[in-house]
Amino acid sequence: MSFEKKNIEKIKLFSKNMRKKILQMAFDAGASSAHFGGALSIVEILATLFSYKMNIKKKKDIGWDSRDRFILSKGHACLAYYSSLNLKGFISDEDLKTFEKDNSSLAGHPVKNKKLGIDFSNGSLGMGLSIGIGLAISSKKRKKLFNTYVVIGDGECNEGSVWEAAMAAPKFELDNLNVIIDRNNFQQTGSNKEIMDLGNLSEKWKSFGWNVTEIDGHSLNDLKNYFDTKKDNTKPNALIANTIKGKGFSFSENNNAWHHSVITKSIYELGIEELKNGN
After folding, report:
1. In this structure, are residues 66 and 145 in contact, taking their beta carbons and an 8 Å threshold?
2. CA torsion sign, 220 to 241 to 191 to 14?
3. Residuewise pLDDT in 10s, the chain (279 residues)
4. Which residue ranges form the domains of the chain, and what is each CATH number?
5. Nearest to 21 by CA among 64, 90, 100, 81
6. Residues 6 or more apart whose Cβ sits within 8 Å of residue 194
7. Which residue among 93, 167, 236, 265 has the highest number of C-beta atoms inside a 10 angstrom radius?
C-alpha cells in the first residue's frame, strides 16, 4: 500500500470511529438530547485535521506552545470535537459517558479545559473566527509559526461578526489562518435558503480577500489534497466544504429533525448496524 493510500485509510478509520463515538455519546445523553446532525456533517473535516494535518502532540505535551490551534466556532457540533479529542487520547471513554450529565466537563458546547485539550469555550455563534484572528496574529508576532483552524457553520454566517472578522483577516496577511465553512445548508429551524439565503459563499469570501476553495466536505481525497496544497502566502484561507447534515446514518442524512434530538434504543441499534455494514 502506498504512503498516500495509508494516510487516506488512516483518516477513513478515524472518521468511522468518530461516528461510532458520536452515536454512543448521543445515546448516553438520553433525554438531555444532542446536536447530532451538525456534528456528523463535519466528521471527515475533523478527522482529516486531527488524524493527519494538525501539528499536535500527545496529552502530556498539551502545553506545547507551537502546537496548531483548533476552534470549533459552531460549538453545538461538539460531539465531533469530543470524539476527535478522545481518539487522540485527550478525553477518556469514561469522560465521554458523562456528556451532558450534571457536573460534566463535556457540556453541550465546548467549555475551555486545557487538561482535555479544549483550548476555547464556544457557545454564542459568530465568536470563533475573531478568536482565530487573534491567535494567528499572536503566532506571527511571537514567531511561534503555528497554524490556526476554525470550523464555522453556514448558518453561523448569518452573524455580522463573521463578516467583520472576514474583513480584518486579510488586512493582517494571516496566511496561517484557516477557516472551514461547513455548508450543510441547514440551521436550527430550517434551510438556509428559507431563513437567510447565503448565495454564492465562495464569491463572498473571495471579495473579502481570502484564498477560497470549494470541495466535497466528505471526500477524504479532496480534503487531504486541499490541506496538502500550498496557498498564496499573503492571504488567509477559506474552505467551503459542501456537506450533508446528519451524514453517515440513513435516518439522519439531510433530515433537519436531527439538528437536536434524542437517540432512542432502536435508533441506536440501527446506527450500530449501519456502521457494521460500512454505511
Report:
1. yes
2. positive
3. 687 899 999 999 999 999 999 999 999 999 998 999 999 999 999 999 999 999 997 766 777 888 999 999 999 999 999 999 999 999 999 999 999 999 999 999 999 999 999 999 998 899 999 999 999 999 999 999 899 999 999 999 999 999 999 999 999 999 999 999 999 999 999 999 999 999 999 999 999 999 999 999 999 999 999 999 988 789 999 999 999 999 999 999 999 999 999 999 999 999 999 999 975
4. 3-276 (3.40.50.970)
5. 81
6. none
7. 236
